[in-house]
Predict the 3D structure of the following.
Amino acid sequence: MITASRFARYGRSILAISIATAGVAAIAQDAGEATRGSITVPDNIQIFGKNDPNNRRATAIVNGDIITGTEVDQRVALVVSANQGKIQPEEMERLRLQILRNLIDETLQIQEARAQELDVKDSEVDASYARLSQQNFPQNPKGMDAYLTRIGSSPASLKRQIKGELSWNNLLRRNVHPFVNVSQEEVKEAMERLKAAKGTEEYHIGEIFLAATPESQAAVYENAKKIVEQVKAGASFSAMARTYSEASTKSVGGDLGWIRLAQLPTELSTAAAGLQPGQLVGPVQIPGGFSVLVLIDKRAVLTADPRDALLSLKQISIDFPAGTSDADASKRASDFATAIRGAKGCGNVDAVAKSIGATVVENDQVKARDLPGPLQETLLRLSLGETSPPFGSVQEGVRMLMLCGRDDPQVDAGPKFEDMMSQLEDDRVNKRAQAYLRDLRRDAVIEYN
């Protein structure tokens, strides 16, 4: 995953995108000026000709720069790989059209940076690519090249995406960020509101937003339903957000960060209120379109979360011989659990395990929240030297976890003044960035082949 810029890292989604209408259209000053006002579409229309915007080859010329079908294919391969290949055949055409739109935006960003003499150097792109390769293939510098080629993409495709993101960051730094101001009073008010909310629940939410006009609502709703179905079938939510979302958080996989439900539109706060971590809801209609939400996690504001406790654990496990029946496995698992509980603490468990042919693995840096939900609750109720119930299967064997130590988290004092100011600034930058990109799209000359 390419690391997002600081401008998108704390950004909140632009949840309501609506068409502003005026009561009376302004009169154009001359024949070359577009008239601003309401877009009027009659209820009963007749289509002349067969202009199907979805029936086109995935190539385009954007202000003279060509986007080839090969570029689309290679970017599609990245998305398919990120979703472990779980893209239905009937979804591929829709995916290709979305990828083409993404490439058009990327091209516009690169062109704008070049026009303002902020063009990203190849050395900068190569350095970012090298860092990304090191993160994913630390022992093999060429591993990224081989991986991309194997899945049907290419290093050039990923480097182009990197160049687009770096170009956009450069443009925001010059043209947007310097003109965003947050006063100290605003920061103090935000921090006071946060303190007043101490103990209330805070939600870590991911969002995919699809814009819709009254005319396109039905089609967009169906697209959103298909996205939900794919995520439920195992597709990566963050990968789907990067591909389909039209919110400013698409570059960070739709991650809204930690928020309180009151910060969301009423429709979304109501839908998210009953979610448990990992659950999905949507499509939810809001002003301007539809949203799909996933609850990544939740916590209490400015309150120590027990799940942030650092646990020292010993895992004791036994394997079953091939052909072991369920009845025999249950008997052996019961005897195993009795023996381990009889160890009476971590100091003696290694010797007991050895006597019954079990293996022991130790880890003293396990964060409770990183464990599966049922195990989190079980382990956080244990005292030192106690064990979890046995778990596993006939095929994979049986395991138990013994608690050998626990460091509880400190009470969260909340964000520092500088962090809060940075978050508020980034919120405003993201909103202006969205408007900036809309302007680039509006002024573009695009030919489809």
Remarks:
- DSSP finds 14 helices and eleven strands in the chain.
- The domain at 306-407 is CATH 3.10.50.40 (Chitinase A; domain 3).
